[in-house]
Design brief:
Blueprint: H1 9-16, H2 19-22, H3 27-36, H4 39-49, H5 54-64, E1 68-72, E2 83-87, H6 94-107, E3 112-117, E4 130-133, H7 137-152, E5 156-159, E6 167-169, E7 173-175, H8 182-189, E8 193-200, H9 205-216, H10 228-234, E9 239-244, H11 250-255, H12 260-273
Parallel strand pairs: 1-9, 2-5, 2-8, 3-4, 3-5
Antiparallel strand pairs: 6-7, 8-9
């Protein structure tokens, strides 16, 4: 990569929308979206971090945003065990960046793989650490093979089992939605112990309110996701706390003889209680 990654919403929309549609999208609307996602600030950030990659790139982003992170439970990161890190997903961007910074520095980037939505592969400086999840067509088969190869390797795997970013729940509690069962099934299948990870942090109330109203209005598209790039910039000067719990052995999970759905729910509970 000979130049910094740059976000160009105009170019992205022109490339993704059919020509007969894109020509009717007014320029002022795209400009408004660029301001919403804070495109200029994000590009400034990417230029500052260039040409760093992986955990070094992640640390530079945190430094640029004056974000501090303290970590509890580093003694639980046993290099002799093949680990799967299962974390809550409160932020939608900086939580992943901070975890890559911590785990990449501890184990080395080549020994860590982070399961992510395949769209995030466009964040090229992190592409060496990312492992894309794509469920459809030939790309889906290729992604599944790559994931299984990583699971069978000695690399440590990190993922957000909820898939989506945490939401506002009744009583004002901000927490993940239900965790998907696949990570437990994979851990048992590939004999990986699971490290429950709690990441303490929140997005702005604007994000949670939009998610709430979108759901009330019956809109199925997660339009609140458009706010997540801007949430990265809004986090300037914040402090985050990460807790790595004690590894839970795959044999212990298998011995419980419970469904992956119940085991996923139990592990989610452990994360929020530790």
């Amino acid at each position: 990569m000979d130049k910094p990654l740059e976000i160009d919403l105009h170019a992205i929309l022109r490339g993704r929308l059919p020509q007969n549609v894109s020509r009717f999208v007014p320029g002022f609307l795209i400009t408004a979206l660029e301001k919403l996602i804070r495109q200029k600030e994000l590009n400034d950030m990417l230029r500052v971090a260039f040409p760093l990659r992986g955990s070094e790139f992640s640390r530079k982003i945190l430094e640029h945003l004056d974000i501090t992170v303290d970590v509890e439970g580093m003694e639980n990161l046993d290099s002799r065990r093949r680990l799967m890190f299962a974390s809550n997903h409160p932020l939608g961007g900086l939580d992943g960046i901070a975890l890559i910074a911590v785990l990449g520095e501890h184990y080395g980037d080549r020994n860590v793989r982070f399961l992510v939505n395949d769209m995030l592969m466009n964040v090229e400086p992190l592409s060496d650490v990312f492992l894309p999840v794509n469920k459809y067509g030939s790309q889906g088969r290729g992604a599944a093979m790559a994931i299984n190869e990583a699971m069978a390797s000695d690399k440590h795997i990190l993922q957000f089992p909820a898939g989506l970013v945490s939401r506002l729940h009744p009583g004002g509690v901000i927490a993940d939605l239900d965790w998907q069962k696949s990570f437990v099934a994979k851990a048992i299948e590939y004999k990986r112990d699971i490290v429950p990870v709690r990441f303490e942090g929140t997005n702005s109330m604007m994000f949670y309110r939009m998610a709430k109203w979108r759901k009330k209005l019956g809109i199925k598209v997660n339009i609140e996701q458009t706010l997540l790039p801007g949430e990265v910039c809004k986090s300037r000067g914040k402090h985050f706390h990460i807790v790595f719990g004690k590894p839970i052995g795959w044999k212990k999970l298998k011995a419980r003889e419970e469904s992956p759905v119940k085991l996923a729910a139990a592990l989610r509970k452990i994360v929020y209680e530790q």
